[in-house]
Design a protein that fits this description.
By secondary structure, the protein is an alpha+beta fold. Helices cover 49% and strands 14% of the residues. The longest helix is centred in the middle third of the chain and has 36 residues. The two termini are 48 Å apart.
């Protein structure tokens, strides 16, 4: 320990004396380690850390899928839940849940507010093995229809609405206008899927909801816990067997489901929860690893040059009796001290970087609330520091071991590296260039892809539009007529607000996250053998909605006040759906129907339940700019909200004169909209109040964030590569100064000397570029998963990246 302390003190004195080397290496390592630490904190929280439940690896999920119909990922039906409970033996518990929202308070219980909620089957809390902080959790009796409704609160809601009082148990909380008895409080920090959920309610399914007529009416998420020793493969076999038996039980639907590709895949719960973000996070993690490699190469080269410059000092120490091992240990200690200083600065920078999570939109990814610089991240950082310190010391140690004592003493203070060390330095810089090119290609492709995303026409005009959600509870609006009348009065008030040009409402606002799909059929359309039914996106809208959103009408008209509840049934479809059923012929006046239950698939309903196509509109991107969403593969159809009301709606209003009228801020109208709704019903809070520009911006997060991070990594890598090229060439010129002087004395032109140096740099850049390009080719399949309408080997991007790299390298050579 005494020797170690002595080595550390000596290393600190040397580093303090050589401030330029210390500042350069610590800064380089700090930047590279900060990026690695921040990305690892994200990857660890989202992908690597187990779910916060006992034996989380035994949690699985499943869903019904109908790829032929366009429903790549459905959910689960209530009959499926009971089948799987009754006919499997691989599950310890099975539970249904879904994330929702409820209105709490009002009528003497404080202001009404909208909070995230989660209806669950009573088995849910047994499955996740939750223990209440106070009271109890749901029992099977709570899920019996007709029972007094109960509620379990989050710790945060208990503190906020009840002041953390013990007496809160047994009190009532008004939920959607119905009094619920508080039976339990969950511990602080309990979370499942959505960390914002503040209360849980038990689901009571009626006999009708459990019946066979509700099969393939998928509205619920399912989670199950495998029995000890059971596997996902065994679970999959049993679920497949249940599906096969049900196909035989209902032979009339068998071919329809086979043509739709119906199946129920079973997945590990965490894997499925994070499946959408896993490729992006792994790619970013690989990117920062490459960046750290470039930083290590730079620091190793600097340390090697420094060791060569110290050759006389090191040789003198060896002449006085210091062994090669002793010198090597000192070099490793110095390297570790530098790496540790960079690591400390990197942790601080990484912690600061995590503060930008909300800005980058990373808070939208699953488990984002768990991201933190904790013990696991610190341990990872320490491991990186040790590895980096050892790697950086390798080249200087090799320089000491390969040089003779006499040579060190003869060469004097400047020192001269051996040919092998010079080759190693060039190889390291070549590797830097290769890694930099790889990062630049990735960043360039993501940038080109993002530009293509921005060029996509969403099917609406976002500027000048304000949106806000409202939900009408069944306790006060029991009938469709009540809902339609209330929405009509609210829209009348909203349209009267000064500055509002037009207003409408919809069940599915673009980029709102709430999507629905349903099978629809066209009268007279003959399906080919093996052709599947289709399940397009299903949207309900009021009059004025299309005008407000700026959606282009291609043919016919859109809904107006004449499409009331007692008017003939009308439907508007988009051009994709029109082409599917009628090709290039006009869709206006055609008839369509969608089955309310399974028997309507075999026999059309009465003619008065058919819908007449009155208009065709351009396609609207509902899920994102890069896809139509799982439910929009075949298009979208729109039903008048007056004829089929929705309890949860999003108001959309256009401010001012629209896109061409400056100075009108739609966000400034939020207060007036709240007042208009409150005038109709003071217990209906508005929530998710956002402009459409904000919604579009949030929808771009999954594309913009990786691009920005990749551009940042690539910029740092390019700078480090330039420094590496410059440093290597500068050192070579310094070592060959006498040779260059002789050449000039013998009549060599300056341009000849310049060409010689440039040739050295060009060879390094060319070799690095070729290796980097080979790496990009090898990783093209990984890159393709992150791109939109851009090939992983796009020639324009690669040429541009190569040009940038060459220019930077040329500047370094100059």
């Amino acid at each position: 320990m005494d020797r170690l302390a002595q080595d550390i003190r000596f290393a600190l004195r040397l580093l303090a004396r050589d401030r330029g080397f210390t500042a350069t290496t610590v800064t380089t390592l700090a930047l590279c380690l900060a990026a690695n630490i921040a990305i690892f904190a994200l990857v660890d929280a989202v992908l690597l850390r187990p779910l916060p439940f006992p034996e989380p690896d035994r949690l699985v999920t499943m869903y019904n899928a109908y790829p032929g119909a366009g429903a790549m990922r459905g959910s689960n039906g209530v009959p499926d839940y009971y089948d799987r409970k009754r006919e499997t033996d691989v599950f310890e518990e099975i539970a249904l849940y879904r994330t929702s929202g409820v209105t709490i308070g009002g009528e003497g219980q404080g202001d009404a507010e909208r909070v995230p909620s989660m209806p669950v089957t009573p088995s849910f809390f047994r499955l996740v093995r939750a223990t209440p902080l106070r009271g109890q959790l749901f029992t099977e009796a709570d899920a019996e229809p007709g029972r007094n409704p109960t509620v379990v609160l989050s710790h945060g809601l208990w503190q906020r609405r009840f002041g953390g009082r013990e007496a809160a148990l047994g009190e009532t909380l008004r939920v959607n206008g119905v009094q619920h008895t508080v039976v339990g409080i969950l511990p602080d920090g309990f979370r499942f899927v959505d960390p914002d959920v503040q209360l849980w309610t038990p689901v009571a399914f009626t006999p009708e909801e459990r019946g066979d007529d509700r099969r393939h009416s998928n509205n619920w998420q399912l989670v199950a816990r495998l029995r000890p020793g059971a596997t996902i493969a065994q679970a999959q076999q049993q679920i497949d067997a249940i599906n096969a038996r049900n196909l035989e039980r209902f032979p009339e639907f068998r071919q329809i489901l086979i043509d739709a590709g119906f199946h129920t895949p079973v997945f590990n719960f965490l894997d499925e929860l994070t499946s959408a973000v896993r490729p992006t996070l792994v790619l970013l993690w690989g990117g920062v690893a490459v960046l750290l490699l470039i930083g290590c190469v730079n620091v190793a080269n600097l340390a090697s040059v420094r060791a060569t410059a110290r050759s006389r000092e090191l040789a003198t120490r060896m002449a006085l009796g210091a062994s090669t091992g002793r010198i090597a240990r000192q070099i490793v200690t110095e390297s570790l001290v530098v790496s540790l200083l960079g690591g400390v600065a990197g942790v601080l920078l990484g912690w600061a970087a995590l503060g930008t999570i909300a800005f980058l939109g990373i808070d939208e990814v699953p488990r984002a609330s768990e991201i933190a610089i904790d013990g696991r991240v610190i341990a990872y950082a320490l491991a990186l520091v040790i590895v980096v310190g050892i790697v950086v010391a390798v080249l200087p140690i090799a320089a000491v071991r390969r040089g003779s004592l006499a040579a060190h003493l003869r060469d004097g203070r400047s020192g001269t590296a051996s040919r092998g060390i010079r080759v190693a330095r060039r190889a390291l810089v070549t590797a830097q260039v290769a890694c930099a090119l790889l990062l630049l290609v990735g960043a360039g492709l993501l940038l080109a892809s993002f530009k293509r995303v921005l060029d996509v026409k969403p099917g609406f005009v976002s500027s000048g539009v304000l949106t806000a959600n409202v939900s009408l509870p069944a306790s006060r609006y029991p009938e469709n007529a009540d809902i339609a009348a209330a929405v009509g009065r609210m829209l009348e008030k909203v349209r009267a607000i000064p500055g509002v040009v037009s207003a409408g409402a919809t069940s599915t606002i673009p980029f709102g996250g709430a999507y629905s799909d349903s099978v629809i059929l066209a009268a007279g359309y003959q399906m080919a053998p093996g052709e599947s039914l289709i399940s397009p996106a299903y949207v309900r809208v009021t009059d004025g909605y299309f005008e407000t959103m700026g959606t282009k009408v291609v043919e016919g008209r859109v809904f107006s006040a004449q499409d009331a509840a007692d008017a003939p049934r009308a439907i508007v479809i988009d051009t994709r759906l029109a082409r599917k059923f009628w090709g290039g012929r006009s869709a206006i006046g055609r008839f369509m129907y969608f089955p309310d239950d399974a028997k309507d698939l075999l026999k059309p309903p009465p003619r008065d339940q058919w819908y007449t196509v009155i208009g065709v509109v351009e396609p609207v991107r509902l899920a994102s700019l890069t896809s139509d969403g799982e439910s929009g593969r075949f298009g979208t159809y729109y039903i008048p909200a007056a004829q089929n009301p929705a309890r949860t709606l999003t108001f959309a209003l256009r401010a001012g004169g629209g896109e061409g009228s400056p100075g009108v801020d739609p966000a400034a109208l939020a207060g007036a909209v709240r007042a208009a709704v409150r005038a109709i019903d003071p217990e209906l809070p508005l929530y998710a109040v956002r402009t459409m520009d904000e919604r579009v911006d949030r929808a771009l997060v999954d594309r913009r964030t990786p691009m920005l991070l990749a551009l940042g990594f690539a910029s740092v890598a390019l700078f480090l590569a330039a420094v590496g090229i410059y440093g290597t060439l500068a050192y070579q010129v310094a070592q060959r100064r006498r040779e260059i002087g002789v050449r000039l004395a013998l009549g060599a032109a300056t341009r000849t000397i310049f060409a010689m140096i440039l040739r050295e740099g060009a060879l390094v850049v060319a070799a690095g570029a070729l290796i980097g390009l080979a790496g990009a080719i090898a990783l093209r399949r990984v890159l393709e998963t992150q791109l939109f309408q851009v090939g992983a080997l796009d020639p324009l991007v690669i040429a541009s990246v190569a040009a940038v790299l060459v220019l930077v390298a040329l500047a370094a050579c100059l």
